[in-house]
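Annotated sample (chain length 125).
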Amino acid sequence: MGKGMAMSDPSALFMQFFVELVTEAARRRRLKMGDFAILVWPELTPRSARQRWQYMRKEIPGKGRSLDVTLVEADKMARVLGQDLVGLFLRAKDRASQVQEEAEHGNKGQADPKAQRRIRLKSDN
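Output written by the structure step:
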């Protein structure tokens, strides 16, 4: 996802945080990203599942944005992780709102917003 897009598009920012929360939860369960993807998309080939998850976490080559997560996929991710989907959504929404608010009020003299998000992600563990 492009840097400017995340800050100006609340939906993209929400999705970015949702994917980050899911990634962190999978890592806490000591799941490799490829193994997690195969569990989420058993109907796909392992290679396709891994690629789909990678494109949700990073930009699609040549597109300049990441792949969107559908509600069905979000539910499958939460189930694989044994987590409540609504809880994940609320945490992602809270983080997105906080970053959006910080961007609107300016960050003069403060640390880089990406670094602040990483700190917040780590503190949620």
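Annotation: The radius of gyration is 15 Å.
Annotation: Residues 3-123 form one domain.
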